[in-house]
Amino acid sequence: AEAETLLFAAARDDHARTVIEPALKQGIWVLSDRFSDSTRVYQGALGHVAPGLLNAMQRVTIGDLKPDLTVILDVPVEIGLKRAAARRGAAAADRFESEDISFHQQLRDAYRQIAKNEPQRCVLIDATEEPTKVAANIWSALRDRFFAANAGSATASA
User: Is 64 left (phi over 0), alpha (psi -120 to 50) or beta?
Assistant: First the structure.
């Protein structure tokens, strides 16, 4: 788990330096499907890598870089595993997908705990809804987080 943490840290460092930071400097929004929370969950909570090592790797690789908003799509484990199986079709499950249901329940619990601990950054979206409803809920979270204050002032000045 420690070696895996180092590999993910190296990949994240490269991604932050070559993609994320240059885009942010140009005023471009960055949307990423995984970031440091994934390492905290997979290698930390489930891999039992010491928080001190995770914190050190984060300081070295991304420093103070942190998402303004983290959307956590939440589904019961059984539904998530069925969706993953449908996506991969006849291909073999990867190392994480082939773990037992207890592993996946711990993953879900760890992500839900992050959302609970950091409500200023995280929003938990019920992903059991129809895709259009999930998308609407994500857009609503974006609007509320980034545009609500500006929308009110634009209306007041009109």
Answer: alpha
Predicted confidence (pLDDT) per residue in 45-93, tens digit: 989 999 999 999 999 999 999 999 999 999 999 999 999 999 999 999 8
CB 49 within 8 A of CB 2: yes
Distances, alpha carbon 109 to alpha carbons 5, 45, 66, 138, in Å: 20, 10, 21, 20
With contact defined as beta carbons under 8 Å apart, do 68 and 145 qualify? yes
- pTM: predicted TM-score of the whole model, two decimal places: 0.85
pLDDT above 70: percentage of residues in the chain? 94
Beta bridge partners of residue 73, listed in sequence order: 125
